[in-house]
């Protein structure tokens, strides 16, 4: 299938590892020029090198923190006319609500709500003018199925989802779409981290925590990063122009509700 985005350009936040890297790799395979971002220079350089070894791939990198004004400025300067924006940031450490401190809330809102909105605001005028834009927010299953130990993730991401929905209604006429990918148990370093956290929280072994992760998924397996990347690439495609304002669960069929 030709996704019709060969020659487009994309900023992918948090793309030196994990889900962001999977999305960047999938887009690069479609001929998209990708900007790899991350806070560790070695990871950014390694990912750029790996992607550029793919056929016809074009990747460049910027090491920065997108939660800062300086970091966002660096991204926009590196790719001012990006056609695609993938907002992605690592989730917080799981903890009970009463263990979340005031500074944690401020940092969580900045990372998982404010920064993505400001990046969108910087790129949206150009997308509207060119009559093409694809904005994807990698949020979390916690947006629709919050858990007690994940309130610090659920709250800012739910706020981001609401704001993005409002904007999506206004920009659809310009062929600019905004959608959200809600991962659950995709097999990345994050799931290893979450298993260690669960083992400590529930007083079980790491292997038991990993087994519980698999058991929690209807498909009885963890998702593959390349599956996630492929879904992202399709939503960024020219063929997906009639899909906007949606939350797509990538969870092996585990989401329990109708809507």
Could you characterize what this model shows?
The protein folds into two domains: 9-184 and 224-243, NAD(P)-binding Rossmann-like Domain (Rossmann fold, 3-Layer(aba) Sandwich), CATH 3.40.50; 187-222, no CATH class. The protein is built from eight helices and seven strands, in the order βαβαβαβαβαβαααβ. It has helices at residues 18-29, 41-52, 69-78, 102-130, 151-171, 189-202, 206-215, 225-235; strands at 9-12, 33-38, 58-63, 84-87, 133-138, 176-183, 247-250. Strands 3-2-1-4-5-6-7 form a seven-stranded parallel β-sheet, with helices on both faces. The radius of gyration is 18 Å and the shape is globular. The two termini are 29 Å apart.
Compact overview of the structure:
The chain is of the alpha/beta class. It contains eight helices and seven strands. Helix 6 (189-202) packs across helix 7.
What is this structure's SSE topology?
Blueprint (H helix, E strand, L loop, with lengths): L8 E4 L5 H12 L3 E6 L2 H12 L5 E6 L5 H10 L5 E4 L14 H29 L2 E6 L12 H21 L4 E8 L5 H14 L3 H10 L9 H11 L11 E4 L9
Parallel strand pairs: 1-2, 1-4, 2-3, 4-5, 5-6, 6-7
Helix pairs in contact: 1-8, 4-5, 6-7
Number of strands: 7
State which percent range the strand residues make up: 5-15%
What are the low-pLDDT stretches, counting only 5+ consecutive residues below 50? Answer: none
Q: Which strand order does the major sheet show?
A: 3-2-1-4-5-6-7
Shape: globular
Q: Report the top-level CATH class of the largest domain.
A: Alpha Beta
CATH architecture of the largest domain: 3-Layer(aba) Sandwich
CATH topology-level name of the largest domain: Rossmann fold
Number of helices: 8
Structural class by secondary-structure content? alpha/beta
Mean pLDDT: 97
- Along the chain, the helix and strand elements come as EHEHEHEHEHEHHHE
Instruction: Give the terminus-to-terminus CA distance.
Output: 29 Å
CATH homologous superfamily heading of the largest domain? NAD(P)-binding Rossmann-like Domain
Oligomerization state of this entry? single chain
Query: How large, in whole angstroms, is the Cα Rg?
Result: 18 Å
Report on the biggest sheet.
Answer: 7 strands, parallel
| Fraction of residues in helix | 40-55%
